[in-house]
Amino acid sequence: MPSPAGHPSSVLNRRGFLTTTLAASAGVLAAPAVALWLPAADAKAATAPAAFVDDYRTNVPANLTPETNAVVRILGGFAQVWKTGATWDTGAVLRPEVLRADMRYCARTTARRTDAEAKDAFIYDRRHQSYAMIAGLGPLADLYTAGAKAVTSITSAPDGTPATTVSDTVPADAPAGSALGAGAHDSALGKVAELVDTLRGPYASGNPAKYAYLYPRPWRLTEDSEVVDTGTTDAFGFPVYKSDVVVAPQLLRQRGTSPADDGGYPSGHTNAFHLAALAYAYAVPERFQELVTRAFELSHTRIVAGMHHTVDVIGGRVMATALAAATLADPANTQLKAAARAQALAYFTERTGTTADTLYSYAHTGADPYADRGANARAVRPRLTYVLPRQGRELPAAVPKGAEVLLETRLPYLTGEQRREVLRTTALPSGYVLLDGFEQWGRLNLFAAADGYGAFDCDVDVALDAAAGGFSAADAWRNDIDGRGGLTKRGTGSLTLTGRNRYTGGTVLAQGTLVAGGENALGQGDVRVTDGTLEVSGSLRVRGVYTQDAGTLGLTLRAGRKAPLTVKHRAVLGSSAVLSLRLDGERPPAEGTVLPVVDVPRLRGRFTRIEVNSDRLRAVPVYTAEGLSVRLVER
Q1: How far is CA 170 from the centre of its chain?
Q2: Which residue in 226, 279, 389, 412 has the most C-beta neighbors within 10 A?
């Protein structure tokens, strides 16, 4: 971490932000926060901070205060737990319950670390972070490294401490034109590599914030966050501090030698991992959640290594989320991000023999360490907050300006305002001290947001277009959706709902296909089909009234099972309503079997046609006042 001129001295100002000024030797004078001659209204406007996406280019070494640096500003929650001192070893703990819990977690993690985990920590400490993220592409990873000409020299870790410092370099036997990190800009995937490098560009460094907060690394601190130098040195000449956090042996010689220039908060590696992840996820949204998961996993190795606190890692993620959004939202990068997405889609579909509609399936087949979405969610969830306690009353989430761009390719069929609603309704609750900072970037939960809405707080009207391909043609919302609003599905494409949904505003299928992927998929309101196909993958419970004016209801019949559609109140069938029955392939019902289809207290109307996907059997309807059954007979 190169040191800027001068030494920072810091105090907490009245707004709870950390204010840092440079000594006169730096040649920089702090400007007054408010021009005193301005009228009150104008003064307030003059001091109102700009939105991060409009101000991210202020993140440069010369700017070390929240008033001058947008990154320092959004990380201001840390000033509530730690008061920066005049030097690196004179800070004070403001929230001991937070920092003690952090130190205990770090000490426990390094004490339980296995030899294999220590080696992994070394690899991800030394390997270029953009290259390390490529594995999140799963079945597409090898194709990416070949197409981007991306290479690394860090392929293994020593058993003990290396004799010298180690850096990632282009191997001597690498193909001509190879490059570290995301790869070469003149390669077949050069635009993607360029996008990654742009997100990790000159305004993305964590160093200014490190100098602003001067929070020592965990191996220099005690549980009470008091720096205690034992007066001795280790075998490598490093001072020994009184700390229970043990650095991985492979990294002992890789540590920073100047404590004043080696701050922990925020974690620079974490920032880099998440920036690279979100750049790849923009270009290859078919692997959005898996890339986010890998960023969390690799960031956790910074704690396992003994090199960073949990709070450092949280800070690195928060700043990366904001920086990625700002860079992607910057008009200067509009053409680049579009070219990167187009290039990735063309490259991967050509190499895999897929289309925009089938690439997602290919990208989730074969060997993939992130194949289990449930396991991914369980890995991400606790690392969003680590040891942070939740305090205070619940406050509504405020989605930062420009954040919707992070979902631009993952949810391309939604409007910008709808993507903001997705971010808002999937955001973390308030009350976490490091996440409730300026604009609340830390509350965004991108893993959850990739699965669509978390609530319908107002009516949602969504259209998917089968001709557009990819997610615009077919997508799935996997969250448990709450709220008083309802859903209207339009367009020729397909939308699948799989959550245990509790929204009460009802569901309308106007066009295309709506797939109910669970018994409670369509919430607790009425369901109406005016056109299109309502597919029920297993069973569906309608808590209100089921109305089918036209269109098709698709159900699967299984031997010995209850009715696949249960309606609580009544069902009304129009003159153009069609029923399409599929016979379960594993447990097909036998000829002559009478099976329940619709279980409802009151049924009005009849299906105009009943289809069966069998060349041998047809369905004879048996209507009663309480529903519909069918008898399977030979054609």
Answers
A1: 31
A2: 279
